[in-house]
Design a protein that fits this description.
11% strand, alpha/beta, 262 residues, five-stranded parallel sheet, single chain, 7 strands
Length: 262
């Protein structure tokens, strides 16, 4: 292959571009070529997902692998996983539906969670739908790798040009993905960003009538409303019924812990 030397002399980023162009061929000569380019990973397309000999050769390179699983059954995915796992654990499985374009009813995004629960490797999504809403949903469901095709012209002939993204759409999708990633935290408490709203809308326990010092608080004495200053949280209302006041509390005022006998 005379052009190999020319490719070798190209900057690294160009090597990655040629990787994108070559990964779908599946021919062993392409695998050898990718090794010579020293690409950071090898992608196996859905058409070769069950090509066990190719999977074994690719895995034996020691490079990270990304495998799309379009047209595969769960038994096929099991085989793919076991074949590569015998060589190394640094690979990813992408849920994929090989239909151009993929209809939402065929997307079966629930397989992302299914893959995650069954295979202890990186799980991603290779999408061929119109637009990128399903891709965003895949990210929200936990996909860590996203593959989408890009085209300069959606009217070109070929299976996937019509459902590929143009550069503007691709940038917009990436921006949306970054926003989703930023929003995937799991903290559940009163956040700093919520304090202003809590001060305005957060409710407190208040007394509905004036209660004298040393009085026993009854259920009918209490109400819940927005108050300033803040009083005890409404979730504590049952715990203060039957307690004794340490001082007089005027009607419509919030109750604080200081106003109760300890």
């Amino acid at each position: 292959m005379n052009n190999t030397l020319n490719y070798r002399n190209m900057p690294p980023n160009w090597g990655y571009i040629f990787l994108l162009l070559l990964w779908m061929s599946g021919f062993q000569i392409s695998l050898i070529f990718l090794k010579k380019l020293n690409t950071p990973f090898i992608k196996i397309g859905s058409g070769d997902a069950t090509n066990i000999l190719l999977l074994e050769k690719a895995a034996k390179t020691g490079k990270p692998l990304i495998v799309s699983t379009g047209m595969c059954s769960m038994e096929d995915v099991d085989l793919i996983y076991k074949t590569i796992y015998r060589q190394h654990k640094n690979f990813a499985l992408l849920h994929c539906v090989s239909s151009y374009p993929t209809k939402p009813c065929d997307a079966n995004l629930g397989n992302i969670a299914r893959f995650q629960s069954k295979y202890p490797v990186c799980i991603g999504y290779s999408g061929h739908e119109m637009g990128y809403n399903l891709t965003l949903a895949a990210v929200a469901l936990g996909a860590k790798i996203v593959e989408r095709h890009i085209t300069p012209d959606k009217t070109w002939k070929g299976n996937d040009h019509s459902c590929s993204l143009n550069i503007v759409e691709f940038k917009s999708m990436v921006s949306a993905i970054r926003e989703i990633e930023e929003g995937m935290g799991m903290e559940k408490r009163l956040l700093t960003c919520e304090e202003a709203c809590w001060k305005k809308l957060g409710k407190s326990i208040v007394v509905l009538r004036t209660i004298e010092k040393n009085s026993i608080i009854m259920k009918e004495d209490l109400g819940i409303k927005v108050s300033s200053p803040k009083g005890l949280d409404p979730k504590l209302i049952k715990s203060i019924i039957g307690r004794t006041t340490s001082r007089t509390i005027e009607a419509d005022n919030p109750i604080t812990e200081d106003e109760l006998v300890q």
